[in-house]
Amino acid sequence: MRAGCERVCVLYGFLTRSARVLACELSGALVSSLLLQNSNAIHSFLLTRTYFISSNLDGNLITYICIFFYSHLSAGAGGWSPLISDKYQWLEVDLGERTKITAVATQGRYGSSDWLTSYLLMFSDTGHNWKQYRQEDSIGSFPGNSNADSVVQYKLQQAAIARFLRLIPLDWNPSGRIGLRLETYGCPYTSDVVSLNGGSSSLVYRLSPGPWRTSKEVVSLKFKTLRNSGMLLHAEGQQGVSLSLELERGKLQLLLRKVKLPSCSHNRLTSLGSLLDDQHWHHVVLEQRNAHLNLTVDKNTERVQCPEQLNNLDMGNVTFSCAEPVSIALTFPGPQSFLQLPGTTTSSLDGVSVGFQFRTWNRAGLLLTFGLLQKGGMVWLYLSDARLRLQIHKGGLSPAFSPGAALNDGQWHSVDLTCRRGRLTISVDKEEGGIAHATPSFPVTTGSQLFFGGKSDSWLIGEECRNPFETFQGCMRLLTVENQPVDPIMVQQRLLGNYSQLLIDMCGITDRCSPSRCEHGGRCSQSWTVFHCNCSDTGYSGATCHSSVYEQSCEAYKHNGNTSGHFYIDVDGSGPIKPQLVYCNMTEKNTWMVLPHNNTELTRVQPSPGVSQHSVHFDYSSQEEQLLAAISQSEHCEQELSYHCRKSRLLNTLEGSPFSWWLGGPGQGRVQTYWGGAHPGSQQCACGLQGDCVDLQHYCNCDADRLEWTEDSGLLTHKDTLPIRSLVLGDIQRPGSEAAYRVGPLRCHGDKNFWNAAFFDKETSYLHFPTFHGELSADISFLFKTTGSSGVFLENLGIKDFIRIELSSSTQVVFSFDVGNGPLEVRVESSVPLNDNRWHRVRAERNVKEASLRLDELPVATQEAPADGHFHLQLNSQLFIGGTASRQKGFRGCIRSLQLNGVTLDLEERAKITPGVQPGCPGHCSSYGSLCQNQGRCVERANGFQCDCSLSAHVGVFCQTEVSASFKSGTSVIYTFKEPYELSRNSSALPSSIYSDLTLRGENVSLSFRTNQSPALLLYVSSYYREYLALLINRHGTRDIFFFWKELEDFNLTSDGEFNAVKSLVLGRVHESDDLDPDLARLASLGFTGCLSVVHFNAISPLKAALLHPDTSPVIITGPLVQSNCGSAASANPYAAENTHHLSGKKGGASSVQSSVIAVVIFVVVTGLAITARFLYQRKETYRNQQVKGVQQENSQDFPFNNQADSQNVSSENPKEYII
């Protein structure tokens, strides 16, 4: 051939005036370039490169092997254009030898409107078994041209090593045709090849022992195989330990074996790779670094502990060539894919014989369909629930029979369907025994057509039976019909059968679970197109099990409204540290996280004969990294350390070295020679620091060496030395020496991350941090509060990629990002304004499957990622918080607890040096004040809030715990009010503000009780003017009297007078009852037996004062009074013969009832509750009463008091008696 050829046969390459040769380090040496001007010197190089095409516009030839060159640019249109422009066309290049291909470039057909806009690249060593090149393991297509003249070059992220390259057009100029000029770049690639026959062949390499051995040894190789199992590498170490690298079901296993174990026993160190039996080259590196082994398969690496140093490497018998068996596969990628082959000939009417192999991830799909030769029947061979099923439709459906199971494992499975002499046999993986038989009553012979993977729509027209099954997505190979192999290349050339949307001569199966994108131990499963993560029992959630379902601290649980209990906490959120179970002790002042160990009790030392020291090790329920992270994020940690001694010295010896010590801190801990309550390194105890030891010549009580029992106890509070790992006690063997020790659990409070906040007071202010790295998965969480209607919380930019979270309006938060597929947005709309100056929580996540956004407790909004798109988030600028790089759309307000992938950004430290931003953000009661219950008052703190329960009858972190006590008949609690000033004129002291106004225009009384006593007096209040108020239970005979009025309605007792000068309030037995009605006095002397709880009289909580503050409150307690939880709902026993109620009432000052004695009897209506003689029911209710509807005054023999005034009990001061 010569330059200046006038007729163009095939034109590949660019119209360039000189040969293009590039350095290998940049984009590779020029491998294939056509249309070079006067380049006779490289004609021989190019003529060794062969070009194949599917068809050409100039003729119907299938294969062209001709190359022409142009001397002039105007010599005519140049490039390749197929006869038909569809997706079944391709262009193939044979580079003559294996080549490291680093880049490709495309150009449209010269002087035309023909060019490609996107295409696929395939590579092969043999011209068969093609493998698609993918970017980022996901993107399959390459961008093409936008016109016929510009050159678009794409540098391959990972160089492809192959001899053959095939380009498949996907899209082209809609106003033209497929048109292409192609150039490839690369370098020659040479390597030694070993062929192993799978028998006893081996290659042995022995390492010479000696001082030259280094701490790093590397074995690197590439392999390809059609078998899914076999030994790849074997290494023998010392003491009978061996290491082997074995292929098992297409995965590479690193196995450890020991001589003492049975030959079949092994320990699998790790497993890597998948589908490695695809007859493509795979790169394996086994690297030993000191005590670790790194196993790399292709681009994925696993690190394991190295048990022994290796001495011997053994790899199979050598044949320096590599057999290339031809096995042409077909890929069925979608619902329209099918292969049609001719069916039975007239010479084989006695039955049917079809065979093939398939592999798939799908649990269902139609494999084979054919009509019976005699009309009116159809045979379906399909997958259902990962089992193979055969069903025949002829005058109705026949029962399906199903050999094989779990056939969606991605492995090749063989299927043989035969019917001879009336016996139908179907086998799956024959060697494994998956065979089923049937004897149909009619002949089973194929019609004129067989369909694999589906059926043609045109074939279904007029057919009786439609396809009721899912389409097959997977690969097939080794097809046989009537024991004759099917040549897929003839199918591709349209010389045999027909097909639609098939990929021929390749298996395009992809293992989306290798490596697994499921994090934190999530179990990966997949179909042909997607993968799924099962996150159950992992403690994480989301599409990839990325986000923790647990809070990061006890502090966070408290602010969700939780009280004390056991909780799982995940200290680093989505990070690698696993959740841990801790006890959260939520007190009114602090929230403690308690981390126990194996012995927190006081333990007596039992010396062992001949052992001078006693050593004890403490094992914590949390793992090492969990402990250290919990200590690090806490504001304060402490651990009790105490030593009880009798003639057993602790620290100070004559020569200065301590008798005893402990180890604390990270790892195994460091030796510490100080004791609880002292400073690190002081070699003292708490008494030595305070100067009050029993012997001032020593710094510890125990060092006085006395015969009396004494102790040295205190708290260790220096976080660097916590937790206590071990304790060593020395002076325990002397005669008379006795000792005991106690190491308490590790206790920490405060979460530095939870309250880390910054206030942005200008729209132009922002904080900046280093670039956020969340290439494959990213989660962002924070809290914000603002009065503004919009603003950007966070932004990070790349060249094209970005990530941003913003408040787009007063009711909407938007999470937007771009990873190369175009911008995506996830929005959450709130029904209430978000600029209410209250804390709102935002949680955003983006992974390879989806993006999600959650606002407060609203439903999660999600946006799926493209199935075949970019998924690496590539950022390179600074991370901006509270604003953007353009200083526009800034956020005004507070941002708190900002975490990216489980790492908290220190907003406060950065805010200290940033103008326009202030560290911290006060004002938490507006958001958390509602957690304070039962008249508890929210008090602001620098970091958080506190519920003040001083005005409540309850206690606890949220004033939620009832204060209850058990009463006996002789128990009496008297709360004494201070005598009014006018009644104590001889007193010079002014009355206290608490008791100064004891003339009450209304009483608010509430309490809960449980008792089986009736009648009973619950509460008695007296005044200095012989007035009293009594709350009692009335019962006569066997009749129960309960109290009932509608919920959320309050009850008023009104009088024409006032309840003046309260003197005392009595719970239980009343000792002074001279002024009472005789019947009431008799009842008061009996006392109360049962449980009283949350007693509240106006602003006074007498029972709480008696139980919790008896020494500082004006209370007098007589008889037994035991605090208990008898008043809580959880303590109610449904089988106890008691009744539980909760009463509350108010007495107002408005005059409407003139009678001196008011008796109110209100009955409880209980529906659906059986009352038997053996079991009396219990009930506990809360009544708030402002107004009574339908309250009746009645005279009853069951009630000892009536509503008539008793003249003998009415004094000149018009005393009033209220019985509720």
TrEMBL record:
PROSITE patterns from the xrefs?
EGF_3, FA58C_1, FA58C_3, FIBRINOGEN_C_2, LAM_G_DOMAIN
Residues in Laminin G domain copies: 328-507, 756-921
Compartment(s): Membrane
Bilayer-crossing residues are 1157-1177
For this UniProt entry, what is the primary localization, expressed as one broad class? Answer: membrane
According to the entry, every stretch annotated as the F5/8 type C domain falls at 80-187
Question: Where is this chain compositionally biased, Polar residues type?
Answer: 1188-1213
Q: Which cysteines are joined by disulfide bonds?
A: 894-921
Give the record's keywords alphabetically.
Answer: Disulfide bond, EGF-like domain, Membrane, Repeat, Signal, Transmembrane, Transmembrane helix
Which cellular component appears as one GO term in the record?
A: membrane
SUPFAM superfamilies for the chain:
Concanavalin A-like lectins/glucanases, EGF/Laminin, Fibrinogen C-terminal domain-like, Galactose-binding domain-like
Question: Record keywords: Transmembrane included?
Answer: yes
EGF-like domain residues are 509-546, 922-960
Domain Fibrinogen C-terminal: from-to ranges: 545-597
Q: Where is this region: Disordered?
A: 1188-1220
User: Membrane topology type, per the record?
Assistant: Single-pass type I membrane protein
InterPro entries from the xrefs?
Answer: ConA-like_dom_sf (IPR013320), EGF (IPR000742), FA58C (IPR000421), Fibrinogen-like_C (IPR036056), Fibrinogen_a/b/g_C_dom (IPR002181), Galactose-bd-like_sf (IPR008979), Laminin_G (IPR001791), Neurexin-related_CASP (IPR050372)
Q: Which family does it belong to?
A: Belongs to the neurexin family.
Protein's name according to its UniProt entry: Contactin associated protein like 3
